[in-house]
Specification:
Shape: elongated
Number of helices: 8
CATH superfamily of the largest domain: Alpha-helical ferredoxin
CATH class of the largest domain: Mainly Alpha
Bound molecules: iron/sulfur cluster, FE2/S2 (inorganic) cluster
Helix content: 25-40%
CATH topology of the largest domain: Fumarate Reductase Iron-sulfur Protein, Chain B, domain 2
Structural class: alpha/beta
CATH architecture of the largest domain: Orthogonal Bundle
Number of domains: 2
Number of strands: 8
Amino acid sequence: MAEFRLPPNSRPVRGATHRAAPGVRELRTLRIYRYDPDSGANPRIDVFELDARTLGPMVLDALIQIKAAIDSSLTFRRSCREGICGSCAMNINGINRLACTTSMQDLGAEIRIYPLPHLPVVKDLVGDLSTFYAQYAAVKPWLQARTPAPPDHERLQSKEEQEQIDRPAACILCACCSTACPSYWWNSERYLGPAALLAAYRWIIDSRDEATGERLDELEDPFRLYRCHTIMNCTDVCPKDLNPAKAIAEIKKMLAGRHG
Ligand code: SF4
Ligand code: SF4
Ligand code: FES
């Protein structure tokens, strides 16, 4: 049987433990992945014990408190604190989610926090999203129309046409879906992944766009699209309740329809 082993310097070792003051009755223990590729040291898991009664409700509140009061070197992304910017996506208790919308109460007394899986780590909880963004750019996520816009008003859509793109356009590019997708883990250089494919779909079905044929041509490739094996992790983890797996299936149907 094949045996898989991680390179020795990629295995997390035990890091520092920051104990809570004695007598804390409601303890939250956060085990947080720490890694600085420039240091040459292995990643480590630091333990932070916090008094739950002094914490804000969300995981991001705890990270901000740790950074402000215990260890200012803890590195993570965040911006809006409202589930809108997508920057605080991380792996919390084994699931990709947004730290700012994940309630600590739902996680129990012990919380494990890692960066999004299968990305090179820039530092601590910050993954390198360069490939992810390049894939998003590759699907040309903007309107392509040869017909000039009407001189006196914008290009209009009916209510029904707008409703078709309303949900796919709500993607916040958090990368929770793509980094939860096994097909993306193994082929992230060649498979576009669910987030980029959802963006492609959003423009393919936009009634104002006139590049549908070219967009479909670009996706007709054994890797870019067809690496999706409908495993559905993407849809399960999306914090905005979007359905990239369905969008991918719809693109496959459109391509099959062209050959039918
Ligand atoms: S449905 Fe496709 S894109 Fe989504 S997790 Fe599965 S293989 Fe990946
Ligand atoms: S589809 Fe959902 S999980 Fe994927 S990037 Fe967009 S918002 Fe995030
Ligand atoms: S900080 Fe913007 S989504 Fe969490």
